[in-house]
């Protein structure tokens, strides 16, 4: 049996079919433009349009339907790491709803809550605390996404927030340096901090790559597709258009850098004895020319791109590899 992992993005839909999670043996990799440009249908009509789009993809690429895994963008869910007094499993189960109400801004009757204990001391002492990851999603949204797939006879085996897939794909160890994982996308970016192999916090930054398209289109009087081509071909190349292109692209990247600096500051405030050492870039926009250099200089940290297929074999995609981390993380999840 094989795994079919889908990452539905506003720009494109990425699919990996793999033999099983452990061997990372890729049977198929596909990237299809998302004609609808949305990732979560809002009404019945959009559910139907979406079902048709997904159904065509399964049909055209003959995708296996037995173990279909999906990711949700971080801006549709809320993830928070909370630190609470030590509780045993039963105590935690009964207290978690109340904890979530404090931490997650989704009304109780629309909340689907998942939680995971990240860190727990061995023994209960008076001031022992534990770290718990809360993930809240909206029932109303999850139901619509599930309906898209149920319409075509597929019941997803896994629906998780994309940043968790990306983090899993990176396989952090407890002795790895403190790291920012930046999952970049067309409409938004997720910024997650990992320390001692564990997720510290994650937040969403509305500085997606399409803002660069709009800036280029407006400045040079181009349509959005032409603008996107300029961005993808030249990025932050200072030689292009006598330096005028980089002048337009830079301010958008600067806003993202400001959000990364906020993450660094927030982490340092909470862990004065620790220091973030590196930034790992993932997602299609991470391939932009000059981006690694610009971030390295602005942040004074090591900046590198993900390598989602470093250990994989088989039908590895020949382009846009950086945008497949989410799928590879979905594949790696043990069910
Ligand atoms: N070489 C490149 N330079 C700059 N941008 C690029 C490059 N290659 C791809 N992109 C941009 O990356 C984006 C597509 O990446 P990706 O497929 O990860 O987005 P998405 O998952 O569809 O978006 P989202 O997750 O925000 O819905 C597009 O904006 C595209 O223009
Ligand atoms: Mg994406």
What does this entry look like structurally?
The chain is an alpha/beta fold and 335 residues long. The protein binds adenosine-5'-triphosphate and magnesium ion. The site of magnesium ion (MG) has 4 residues, from loops. Magnesium ion binds next to loops.
- Kindly report how far apart the N and C termini lie: 13 Å
Our estimate of the beta-strand percent is: 25-35%
| CATH topology (fold) name of the domain at 77-138 | Dna Ligase, domain 1
Overall CATH architecture of the domain at 77-138: 2-Layer Sandwich
**Average pLDDT:** 94
Enumerate the spans where pLDDT stays under 50 for 5 or more consecutive residues: none
Number of extended strands: 14
Q: Biggest β-sheet: count, sense, barrel?
A: 6 strands, mixed
Question: What descriptive keywords fit this protein?
Answer:
alpha/beta; Dna Ligase, domain 1; 6-stranded mixed sheet; 5-stranded mixed sheet; 9 helices; binds adenosine-5'-triphosphate
Summarize the structure.
With 335 residues, the protein is α/β, with parallel strands linked by helices. 36% of the residues lie in helices and 27% in strands.
Secondary-structure map with pairings?
Elements: E1 3-8, E2 12-18, E3 25-33, H1 44-60, E4 68-72, E5 77-85, H2 89-103, E6 111-119, E7 129-138, H3 139-150, E8 158-161, H4 162-170, E9 179-183, E10 189-195, E11 198-205, H5 210-220, H6 224-234, H7 244-270, E12 278-282, H8 291-299, E13 302-305, E14 313-314, H9 325-332
Parallel strand pairs: 1-4, 3-14, 4-8, 9-12, 12-13
Antiparallel strand pairs: 1-2, 2-3, 5-7, 6-7, 9-10, 10-11
């Amino acid at each position: 049996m094989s795994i079919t992992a889908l990452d539905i993005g506003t720009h494109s839909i990425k699919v990996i079919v793999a033999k099983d999670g452990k061997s990372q043996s890729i049977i198929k990799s596909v990237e299809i433009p998302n004609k609808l440009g949305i990732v979560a249908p809002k009404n019945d009509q959009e559910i139907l349009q979406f079902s048709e789009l997904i159904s065509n993809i399964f049909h055209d690429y003959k995708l296996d339907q037995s173990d279909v895994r999906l990711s949700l963008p971080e801006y549709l869910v809320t993830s928070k790491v909370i630190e609470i007094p030590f509780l045993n499993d039963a105590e935690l189960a009964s207290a978690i709803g109340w904890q979530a109400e404090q931490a997650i801004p989704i009304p109780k009757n629309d909340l689907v809550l998942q939680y995971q204990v990240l860190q727990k001391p061995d023994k209960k002492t008076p001031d022992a605390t534990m770290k718990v990851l809360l993930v809240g999603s909206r029932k109303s949204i999850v139901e619509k996404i599930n309906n898209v797939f149920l319409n075509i006879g597929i019941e997803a085996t896994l629906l998780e927030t994309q940043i968790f897939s990306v983090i899993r794909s990176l396989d952090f160890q407890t002795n790895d340096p403190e790291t920012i994982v930046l999952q970049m996308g067309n409409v938004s970016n997720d910024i997650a901090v990992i320390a001692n192999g564990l997720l510290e916090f994650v937040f969403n930054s509305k500085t997606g790559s399409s803002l660069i398209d709009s800036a280029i289109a407006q400045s040079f009087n181009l349509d959005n597709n032409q603008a996107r081509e300029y961005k993808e071909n030249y990025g932050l190349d200072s030689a292009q258009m006598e330096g005028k292109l980089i002048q337009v692209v830079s301010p958008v990247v600067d806003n993202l850098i400001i959000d990364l600096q906020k993450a660094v500051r927030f982490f340092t405030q909470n862990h004065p004895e620790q220091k973030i050492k590196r930034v790992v870039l993932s997602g299609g926009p991470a391939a932009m020319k000059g981006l690694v250099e610009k971030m390295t200089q602005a942040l004074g940290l090591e900046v590198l791109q993900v390598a989602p297929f470093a250990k994989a074999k088989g039908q590895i995609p020949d382009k846009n590899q950086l945008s497949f981390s989410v799928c590879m993380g979905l594949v790696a999840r043990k069910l």
